[in-house]
Every structure is written in C-alpha cells, then in structure tokens.
Amino acid sequence: MSGKLTPGRLMLMAYVYLVLIFVLAPIVVILPMAFSEPDYLTFPPEGFTFKWFGAFFGNARWMDASVFSLKIAVLTSIVTVVVGTMATYALMRGAGRLGTLFQGLLIAPIVVPHIALAVALYLFFRQTGLSGTVTGYVMAHAIIAMPFVVFTVAAALSSVDATLEDAAMSCGASRFDAFRLVTLPLILPNVLSGALFAFILSFDEPVISFFLAGIRDKTLPRMMFDNIEQNLTPVIPAIAVLLTGVSILVLVCAAVLRRMAQSRSIPAEEG
Amino acid sequence: MANGAQTTAGAEITVRGLEKKFGQLKAVDDLSLDIPSGEFLALLGPSGSGKSTVLMMLAGFEVPTAGAITIDGRDCTRLTPQKRNIGMVFQHYSLFPHLSVIDNVAFPLKMRGASRADRRRRAAEALEVVRLEGYGDRMPSQLSGGQRQRVALARAIVYQPRLLLMDEPLSALDKNLREEMQLEIKRLHSELGVTVVFVTHDQGEALTMADRVAILRGGRIQQISAARELYERPANLFSAGFIGEMNMIPAQWDGSGLMLAQGDRLAPPEAALIGAVPSGVATLAIRPERLRVSAPDAPGALAATLEEVVYAGAGTLLIARLADGTEIRARVPSAGLPRLAEGERIGLTFDPDALLVYGEAAA
C-alpha cells in the first residue's frame, strides 16, 4: 500500500500508533525501573545497577517459586499438547456428530472470564483436595491453554491432505503409524508452537494461581503479588524484565516454527 | 531390465454380490466381478457411478455392507488396508511432502521391516523402473506433476504387490503428459505382470489402456468386455451413448425389419440385433464414422437435410437432420468430399454390419 497520505490514511496511522503506544508504554516504563538504585520504585530511574536481579536469583523463596512455576508450565504444555492434539485430530478427522459441541467446549475458556473460571475451580478443587497441588495447577492451566493449542493444531491439520494417511496405510502402515510417521511430522511445527504458547500462558498466569495457591508452594506471579502487597522493591520490575524476555524468546521461537511449517508445505496442484 | 521389475504373477480377484450403502443411497449395488491374474481392468463411469467406491472397497478403505471380496483365494472383505499387500496410486499422488523421493518410495519397505540398505537399493531400482533414476534426493515439491505421479507409481510397485489399484491417477495431468503416462503405465503392467484395476471417467483412457473395461452406472455394471467389443457392440444404449459418439434413431421393429419415423424400411442382418429385440419400439444405433455421403435418392440411403459442416483437417463432421427431427452426425474423410452447403439435401449410406438394433428394454 504505497498510496497518498489521505486524511483517512493519516487517521488510521495515528490510531494504529496510539494503540501501539498504549499497549507498549507500561512495559517501556517498568523495564528501566529494574536498573534503578534506590530500594523503592522510581521513575525516571536513578543510577544503574544489576543488584535487583542479584536479589532475585539469590533469594531461595523467589527461586523456589520460579522452579515451581517452571515445573507447572512444562507439565501444562505437555498435557495440553498431547490432549489438545488428540482432541483436535478427532474433531477434524473423526466422523462423530458431537464434534461441534466438543469443539465449543474446548475453546470456551477463551470467552469465559478467568476470574469466573478461577472461582469455579477453587470451589471444585477445595472439595477434591486438588487445591495447591501440582496436579490442580496443571489441570487449571491446561484448561486455559487448550484453545490456543486447538487453534494452532487445527490450522495445521486443515492444510494436511487426509488421503496422505490412506496412502500410508496402503503402503502397509497401521493407522497409528500413519499418524505418527506422516501427519504428525507435518503438523509438528504448529504442535510445538502450541506447546510454547501453553508454556508461556501457564508461566505468566496470575488469576487462577491467586485462587489456587497453597501456603507452601506458590507460583512466581503469586509471589510477585505477595511481594507487591508487602514491600514494593525494584525486584518486581527486574522479574518483569526477565518474564518479558522469556515471552519474547518464546514468541520468536513460535514464529520461526511457523515459518518452517510454511516452507515445508507443498503447493497442492500444479502441472 | 532392473531387478526391481521382476515379474510377479498378478492377483486373481473375485467379487460377489458387493453392496455399499451410504445411508439410504446404494453407491454399489449387487456387483459381481471376476478379474483373472494379470488383467488390466478399467472401471469406467460418470461421477456417482460407484466406480471409486468399488476401488475403495478393494483397497480396504470402505467396508462393504454386503457381499464378499476374495483376493487370491483369501477373503479380504473386512481386512484392513495395511494387511492387503496392495499397491495404490491416488488421484493427487499423495506423496509424503516431508520425505525425500527415495524415502517416499522406500516407505512401504520400511513398514515391512526391510533393512536400511535393502530399502535404499530396492527403492532406487523402483525409481529406475519409472525412469526417475537420480531423483532420489529431491523433495516432492521440487518435482513436476508427471514426475510426482511416477514417484507415486514407484512407491506402489516397490514391494512387488500382486495387485495395483489406481484411482484416476492421470486426471490431474495435462493432455500430453497424460498420454505419455498412459503408455508408461501400460508398459509397466506388461513388464511386471501385476493385476491392475484402474478407475477413470475418461473413456479414451479406458479403451487405450485396459484389457477389459467395466462400465458402471448407478452402482451396477452395465457391460464388461474388451475395448473393441465395447465400442463395436455396446450391450445397451447407456454403453452405446457413453463410449464414443453414437447416432440413435427411433424406430419400430416388426420382427424382421426396422421402420424409421420418416418412412425408410431397413432389413438389418441377424447380427445387428443386440440381445432379444421384441416387436415394437426400438432404437437404431450407428457410429458417425460408419456413415458415407451420397445423393439423397441413392438406393439404401437415408435422406437428410444438412445443417452444419465442420471441417477439421483430415476429417469433416456433418450434422444433419432426418425428416422426423432426429439429429444425425457423420464423420467422413475430408479428401474427396464434394462441396456441401448447409441446408442441402444429402443421402447417408452405410454397410449392413454398421447397424445395431436395441429393443425397448435396452435403455
């Protein structure tokens, strides 16, 4: 689009930049605070130090929370990807009449407010004794992350010719081998990018963790909440810098995976 | 010749009372068929005739609702596809896009537990058979349509199956390539001795390639016979109209002669009658290339009014109309043809053995 700068176009550009500023400004403001000298939050930052990162990595409680979050995020992404891929495969390749219903149920968490989900899970987990357990966290996070895996895997599956599995079976492969050796490698980039999304959603997830946290085991976002309530030091922006870094890294990985997927797919029809 | 092209005896197939219902719709209806070892059989029919469903049942992707399929004496009716040892070529090639050409071809051998060295050797031989030696390391996306179809063929024959199924394998190719591949597949068939069942909606393809052609309509076999018989003596009017061009002229059969609506009386030889022709409404069928042009009043000629003259080099197509309004087409050699004007009265003559007479029931 190399058009003239019409008033409409100018307004659109202004709108787009305003949205970008609105979205990015809080991050841009918080990041420099992580390197500020005083032990309270200041803007603009004063001086320059890495000591708050040191405070984070040197503190056993922060480290415990990080390891706990990491453990949950890894388990969540594994569970979500295995269940989500199988479910999506069944929805798209199966002949069941309930497909639409199940698809609706799988992606519903994207429209239900997390706070409502959190309350419901809290009540449910309290009665079943899952509150504060790794299993409870992983189940809750898997519910939230599921729609993202379903969407990315569905996008990949719709571009993979279903007769490829027939071809594999006519070559002597079992139904499972046909999936494992043909369909899975073709959708793998999207499956992995779904796993990365699930990981980051779980790792950063504050709302449900707030409700489910036990006394001993807390996730990193929950620990940050506690810390903000008690003493607001620049450790918080330091962690924010680290989390943002992880998120960017994950998004870049997902983009690379998607690029790989595109270059791999062959044009379906040509002479 | 490469070792990969060792001759294997083709499979013998018996199909009895085969039926496939999708809900209320009978896609295949009480179909029986015997395919001898090494035969090249074409299943020919319009879309919806059930030809692909028959193939899918032979392959094991569809389970029949009734009937039985026996391959080499073994009941395969409900056997899963991977246990049938059948080679299959799909309409859109269905190559595995993430595997190189050689890995695609070696895939069936891998599924059969062949060693890596053995797989590579035999896959390379199969590529040689389809004249793609040296293409092993390419990816399918780097090949042309014709090359992809050759790879699909190599993958289907690499483990020397006794039966090769092909589902409209050439329909995605352009005309020149299609004709080249037709000859290629025929060559492979005679080199390998494998039984081939080939689905197509292209009659020219069926007539060129197959030993026998089965014409399907509404899930039933209309006729199954060798190409020449199919063309020269179609078993009913559907086959007659489906294969090639056919003039069909309404007539009355009185037990010994044929009365046309415009008054001509013909006495066709005994051999012209297809099946039993009871007295009453009948149809006279004659191929356009069996007609010749004469004067309108020549003895034995059908008088007609010329409507269109289409010159096409070696041949000329004449479209004329009988007095009762029936259109009649003649394909005659252009050489020696007098100048004909549209609207002119002409006569059309024929040899007695060009006539085919169908009774009312042969629709």
From TrEMBL, chain A:
The chain crosses the membrane at residues 12-35, 72-92, 104-125, 137-157, 178-201, 235-257. It comes from the Bacteria. Residues 66-254 form the ABC transmembrane type-1 domain. The keyword Cell membrane applies. GO terms for cellular component: plasma membrane. GO terms for biological process: transmembrane transport. Its main location: membrane. InterPro entries: MetI-like (IPR000515), MetI-like_sf (IPR035906). It is a multi-pass membrane protein. PROSITE patterns: ABC_TM1 (PS50928). It is found in: Cell inner membrane; Cell membrane. It holds the Pfam family BPD_transp_1. Keywords: Cell inner membrane, Cell membrane, Membrane, Transmembrane, Transmembrane helix, Transport. Belongs to the binding-protein-dependent transport system permease family. This is ABC transporter permease.
Automatic annotation (TrEMBL), chain B:
GO terms for molecular function: ATP binding; ATP hydrolysis activity; transmembrane transporter activity. The keyword Transport applies. PANTHER family: SPERMIDINE/PUTRESCINE IMPORT ATP-BINDING PROTEIN POTA, SPERMIDINE_PUTRESCINE IMPORT ATP-BINDING PROTEIN POTA. GO terms for biological process: putrescine transport. It comes from Pseudooceanicola nanhaiensis. GO terms for cellular component: ATP-binding cassette (ABC) transporter complex. This is Polyamine-transporting ATPase. Residues 13-243 form the ABC transporter domain. Keywords: ATP-binding, Nucleotide-binding, Transport.
